[in-house]
Write a structure and sequence with these properties.
Belongs to the MscS (TC 1.A.23) family. It is a multi-pass membrane protein. This protein has seven helices and eight strands, in the order ααααββββαββαββα. It has a five-stranded antiparallel beta sheet with strand order 4-3-2-1-5. It is an alpha+beta fold and 296 residues long. A hairpin with a 4-residue loop joins strand 7 and strand 8.
Length: 296
């Protein structure tokens, strides 16, 4: 009976010791967990505030980076909490690193698009609403996220392009510059009054208020074609006026040339038939006449 009582007392004492040890560890773990959650929220807000203050970071990238800071603090908090219960964090980190490497290899294509999306959102080579051409895919940017960029072409086709395809190609942004250069070329007859035609083009360019005076517009002979002399008007306009000015000026020049009698020729072609019989090879002498009214 005494042995049973002694065993019960020993078990109770051992249980009390374990409760004190693990209770203190549990309390410390809870305090660390609460502190980690608070610090994670603070870190997320601080990173978002710093990125917003810089004014160079897109809102999508701002949310991604601030969320990354929050999850980083939470991951560190989880490791500290596990260490309170005697878990070997070094071994756990090795396992997590191996798992992360395997996942990274399996998702390397997707992760490359995410990395490209981060670079596009951070460096901002284009923004929503700008017209771009990325490796032959052209359109107005409708949206940018971490995985893909959505564009809308001139004919209304929605195109979703993975960010890795855009980041790895030559990118042309047609909307970033406030002004654009434009050329309007029209062919005239070779026998037309060249100086008069160039004067008409200069007057038309000068009359259009959308065409910028600086840099000064130019009118010159661009080429001597097969059937026409190509006159070119070169000028600068605001980016948003480019197409409208080109269309209006082309129409106006055609009407002005018609009024002033300056011809715009149709393509012509001269054909030489090699080996055709010449007049010298035709038979000489009188042509035989039919007799008695019969056939010759």
């Amino acid at each position: 009976m005494d042995d049973i009582i002694d065993g019960a007392d020993a078990f109770q004492a051992r249980a009390l010791d374990l409760a004190v040890v693990y209770g203190s560890n549990l309390l410390a773990a809870l305090l660390i967990l609460v502190a980690g959650i608070v610090i994670a929220g603070w870190a997320r807000g601080k990173v978002a505030w710093l990125l917003r203050r810089s004014g160079r970071v897109d809102s999508t990238l701002e949310g991604f980076l601030s969320g990354l800071a929050r999850y980083g603090v939470l991951a560190l908090t989880a490791l500290i909490v596990l260490s309170q219960f005697g878990v070997e964090t070094a071994s756990l980190l090795a396992v997590l690193a191996s798992a992360g490497l395997a996942i990274g290899l399996a998702l390397q294509g997707t992760l490359s698009h995410v990395a490209a999306g981060v670079m596009l959102l951070f460096l901002r080579p284009f923004r929503v609403g700008e017209y771009i051409d990325a490796g032959g895919t052209a359109g107005t940017v409708q949206g940018i996220d971490l995985f893909a960029t959505e564009m809308r072409s001139f004919d209304g086709i929605q195109t979703v392009v993975p960010n890795g395809r855009i980041w790895g190609q030559v990118l042309k942004n047609y909307s970033r510059s406030p002004t654009r250069r434009a050329d309007v070329t029209i062919g005239i007859d070779y026998d037309a009054d060249l100086d008069r035609a160039m004067a008409v083009m200069r007057d038309m360019v000068a009359a259009d208020g959308r065409i910028l005076a600086d840099p000064a517009p130019q009118v010159f002979v661009g080429a001597l074609g097969d059937s026409a002399v190509a006159l070119t008007a070169r000028f600068w306009v605001a980016s948003g006026d480019l197409l409208a000015v080109q269309w209006d000026l082309t129409k106006g020049l055609k009407e002005a040339f018609d009024r002033t009698g300056i011809g715009i020729p149709f393509p012509t072609r001269t054909i030489h038939h090699v080996g055709a019989p010449s007049e010298a090879a035709a038979p000489a002498g009188p042509v035989p006449q039919p007799r008695d009214g019969g056939p010759a």
